[in-house]
Amino acid sequence: MERIALMVDQMGSGENVFEQFAIEFEQSSLQGDINIFLSVIQSKIEIIENRLQDLSEKITAENEHVENKYAFTISKTKAILSIWLPVFSNRNIDPNIVNYLSAELDRLLEYVALSNIESKSLDQIKDDFKTKFIVTSDQAEELRGTIAQIQPHIFVSHGSSERITMRFVKEFVTTLSAEFIKAEEKPAIKLVHVIQSEISNIQAEIVDDGENTLYYGELKIWIDTKDPAEANRFMSVVAAVLSSIENVEIEILDAGVGSIWQKWGVTIKGWFAKEETKQILNKGIKAAEYYSMDRHIAPVEKDKMETSKMQAEIKRMMPEEQTKKLQDIEVQKSEEELKSLKLTNVKQQLEIIEKLSDLFAQGILTVDSDFRIELNGAILIMQESGKIIPGKLDEIDNNLNKKMMDVPKDDKKNKSE
Question: pTM above the 0.70 mark?
Answer without folding.
Answer: no
